[in-house]
Amino acid sequence: MTTPLGTTASRDLGRVLPTGETIGRYTSYLDAQKAVDYLADNKFAVQRVAIIGNDLKAVERVTGRLSYPRVALGSAATGAWFGLFVGLILSLFADSEMVSTVPSSIALGAIFWLLFGVLTYAFQRGKRDFTSTNQVIATSYDVLVDPTVAGEARRLLQQLPMNGQAQHPGSNPSAWGQAPNQTPQQQAPERPASWNNPEAGQQPQTPQPSQPETAEDQTAGPGTTGPRRGQFPDLPDGRPQYGERVEDQPAADPPAADQAGAADERSAGTDRPADGGHGSSAAGGPR
């Protein structure tokens, strides 16, 4: 922001969030206050320390139930205290008698506040029949320190025992030298040797001796006695497991008529030379 003269206005440091190293985180303000107070007792430069509340929440705590008698009694008590104060002022500075001024002021104040409280409660028409207190609290509190003196602050807070605070420097002495919000580094797991040599994790396979077939494997199937036919075993009743079995049939014999004809031809072939001889002899006789 610039002024009409062209100069830059100085920033209000009270409205800027402080920066630094988080040396501890606490769940309650009293614990954070205890840590800062311990630093102050050990002559630490606490002007470089700040407490920051995180996740602010508005909390309203209900304290009781309202009713006309309770409103009237509370209003009368408040008016009586106010009347007592006014009566003392008048008796001291108005040169009036305290015996008469103070009681009358208390009575007038009680009556006035009683009427005012009852009328106010009546106008609400039962919309708020309870009393409560309001406050703004944070879920956690960070203790910030200037980075130049953060190591010294951690060293001092390590000597302060504080139970129930996991992020207090004294609860983890081995990690006090690390930066805030930094987890300890863990060593990466080693790479298995089998990744570089895929065959390293494999065992040599030895040939297994072939086992002789049992009687059940040689048969058609469990519960059968016939030989096994094909790739798949037969069912227990002898039927094939898939499809239908076609039996190999023997060659059919020639018909009986063909066999008779062949026999006649053979007999005729053998009789022809005999007939020719008898004919020649018969013909030559008469000659």
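(ticket continues) Second input and output from the same batch:
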Amino acid sequence: MTNKAAKHIVVYEEPHVFWGHNLDYENLESLKSIDADYFRYHADLHVEQLTTDAAQHAAIALRTVYSQAVEALFALVGAFIQAPHFALGWLLKYRDEQLRALVRKIDAAEPIYHRILAGPPTWSLLAQTILENVDWDGVDRERYITGFADLFQWTARDLLSEDRQREYNSIKHGIRQRSGGFSLAIRIHSSNNQGDYRRLGGGRFGSRFYIAPKVKRSSKYHSLLGTVSLNWEPDAIAARIPEVRCVFERARIIEGAVPRLEAKPTVDIPVQLSTREEILDGYPGGPGSL
């Protein structure tokens, strides 16, 4: 197998080399197989159940598919930025903590390894890059780009929220959460010591789940049992799923980056001699380089 069969990529800050006879073909086939309608199907299916006796189950289902959609969205974003020439490899190798670390750096406009951005990473620049080849005839370009950038920023907050991540893990690993929202009220005392409760807020939908943070960061074996309660509106979640799906429809713009990158010098390294530094040398971006 020759070196021309290799694809060099970086996942967050970790280099990888992929070998195969038809890597370009498999990469494009994997992108074509992305099914954005999967998320719309679940949104349409479960939102109809929010007024029935199965409302709580439907709300949790919407919450779960939205969390799945957000993770899948930013996985595509990571692949687009760091491995547009071989997104399949990036999607196969990324870990949850790497994805969140990458999104956190973009959210803070911090330097990252990249292959396609024209400047420091921001959600606005990412939106412009993704929509680079759109036909803007009769379309408000700036409004469209701003909408995409806002969507990235809002959903990034969801991905990076520790409580939301714990909730998602509780749902997908054994349905450990308790469905339903909560309310908060205070009691107004009177002179006869019999006051009424005044409701401050709350909601019908949400979840309650257990957490087990370490007693001390340096402690490996000691944890403190606690609970977290969250309220959220399933209708709002259902409305966001089509917006996330819209970005999935643009996923094939990664294909357009392939010939553009192949025109640049490639890293040609025998397998037995590949090093982290040699692989990263093919990336113009990175910590300390922007």
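Agent notes: Confidence is low (pLDDT under 50) at residues 252-273. The chain is about 50% helix and 15% strand. Closing as not reproducible unless the customer responds.
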